Amino acid sequence: MIPTSLRRRQILGAGLGLPLLAAPSLSQAANGQKTLRLAFKAAETGFDPARISDGYSRAVTGHIFEALYCFDHLARPVLVKPLTAAALPEVSADFKTFTIRLRPGILFAPDAAFKGKPRELVAADYVYSFKRIVDPANMSPMLPFLLTANMLGLNELREQALKTGRGLDYEQDIPGLRALDRYTLQIRLAEPRPRLIERLASSDIFGALAREVVEAYGRDVDAHPVGTGPYRLAQWRRSSSIVLERNPVYRERRYDASPAADDAEGQAIAKRFKDRLLPMVDRVEIAIIEEDQPRWLSFLNGQLDVLAAPGDGVPAPFISQAVPHGQLAPFLAKRGVQLFRQLNADCSLIYFGMTHPVVGGLAPERIALRRAISLGYDVRRNIALVRRGQGIPAQSPIVPHTSGYDPAFKSEMGEFDPVRANALLDAYGWGERDAEGYRLQPGGESLSIEIATTPDQAARQSDELWRINLQRLGLRVKFNTAKFPEHLKSARAGKLMVWGFAVQSDVPDGLAALARYNGPQAGSQNVSRFSLPQLDALYQRLEALPDGPEREAVFREAKRLAVAYAPYKIVAHLFSNDVAQAWVHGYRRPLFWGDWWQFVDLDPQPAKL
């Protein structure tokens, strides 16, 4: 523990630019191993790829498991490249058949489930892993993606399991997902899916599991993740700490990246690390530090190497000290701290529970209530206070860097108009007031807007803004306090009224954002459980259309419907301000993927900062 007096000096030093004492070096252990030290601002939920959706858990699984493909770490715009596959897939002209050949000789990390024998990755492992996602027993948040991908026979296999109640028949051969031989996987679809390969590049969700491991550990497999990736789980104290260590049988994989010709930073990284063996650090230690101040102090004191994805980099309360006017503060620059700033492919949003009797449904008065709350929410104040200026107002669900995003598109989503919001409420039956002056429901019942919140300083600032915003509209507000994983579970079950959180796209296709509006994905990506046939039809068209002007026109229509029905208020697209110590080399925040730990290197840190 750091003495209280020293902690106070360090906090003051951070604001005044005074030198800070460093903790003893841990980046380079006595045995020569390099250890990367990170922090998550929220707890993980587990490490079974079929059963997780939160970014913190997925960041870990993305380093343990491997998908068929990955995104080039330095390429902008993004580039898909083989990972466990030997090459890009053979794709039929109608985008319905994908034939993929694996690299022979890739091994799973050693585990007792293999009874002391090496276990090679084979095509059947992907067949099994994809089937786990549709297995009703796993209640996978990723289920809708595989269902909407429409692999021939896969939906029917799930329906059969639901109908019989005997569990999924993993032995049943289906035409849409087959291992043609030991190293050849074939995927056949009922409808064209031109961008299927982008989704298959998500190692955190679509990495391969070995059936022996799942059968050995049963429901406890989330505590025993065994993959072919660069790291394996060494220690785990739930909601406290996570330790990964180098996979001892990881294949010979070398640093290979293709930055753009005009990307000076990327070119320098590629030159420095070309052909280096991966991973470059041996061990990754992750602490769960939910409060902003201790997390920032840990970085300042040299106890963390990087503040970066997943998460928000420099915590919002310290932005003005660390990154004034978007530039690294001089006291940090003198220490060699590195700043990595970018507008992310993400958004912060407000979710309305569409099954909630007050804010949910498609009745005109319920739509009016959601739109009024959205119009009455001061987005720019949220960005200025809660986000410390680190964002731009959002105009639609589609996030930057993805197809369908148009910086010129403007809509009601980005407006703050409490006068119009009050007029909407008056016009649609919310005009009656109680003795305290708060609005009543159209039937005369009392009305309270219940906001899900978390027990931290940033949430308290957000709560106060909510209170002010809803007071302007004559709406009483109550707060429901719990930690993020609890709210996520409740939201997926349709039990929350209003909640705010942020999401990051994991593919360069803007359709991923519209999954939150897609009826068949209710309860998973679509946490609000919104369902509108017109929007579902547009979603299906966007799935099948190739990129081009016609698809962009469909995106525009989908965005208009999303704004009009308002199951979400998309608040802002956020800037990240990641910082790394002077001894960290090669960091670049990923746009759509979660794995980057294997791509950085560390020097021994100095005794003093």
Structure description:
The protein is of the alpha+beta class and 609 residues long. The protein has 3 domains: 4-42 and 250-343 and 579-602, D-Maltodextrin-Binding Protein, domain 2 (3-Layer(aba) Sandwich), CATH 3.40.190.10; 49-227, Dipeptide-binding Protein, domain 1, CATH 3.90.76; 346-574, Dipeptide-binding Protein, domain 3. Helices cover 30% and strands 17% of the residues. It has 20 helices and 20 strands. The chain has helices at 4-16, 55-64, 123-134, 143-149, 154-164, 196-199, 203-206, 211-217, 264-273, 292-300, 319-322, 330-333, 364-375, 379-386, 418-427, 457-472, 484-492, 511-514, 533-544, 549-565; strands spanning 35-40, 69-71, 80-82, 90-91, 97-101, 177-181, 184-188, 231-237, 241-246, 283-288, 306-307, 338-343, 346-352, 391-393, 448-453, 476-481, 498-504, 568-580, 584-585, 601-602. Strands 11, 12, 13, 14, 15, 16, 17 and 18 form an 8-stranded mixed beta sheet that branches. The chain has a 4-stranded mixed beta sheet with strand order 1-10-9-8, covered by helices on one side. Strands 4-5-7-6 form a 4-stranded antiparallel beta sheet, covered by helices on one side. A hairpin with a 2-residue loop joins strand 6 (177-181) and strand 7 (184-188). Helix 13 (364-375) packs antiparallel against helix 15, helix 14 (379-386) packs antiparallel against helix 16 and helix 19 packs antiparallel against helix 20. It is globular. The chain starts with a helix and ends in a 7-residue tail after the last strand. Mean pLDDT is 92; it is low at 1-26.
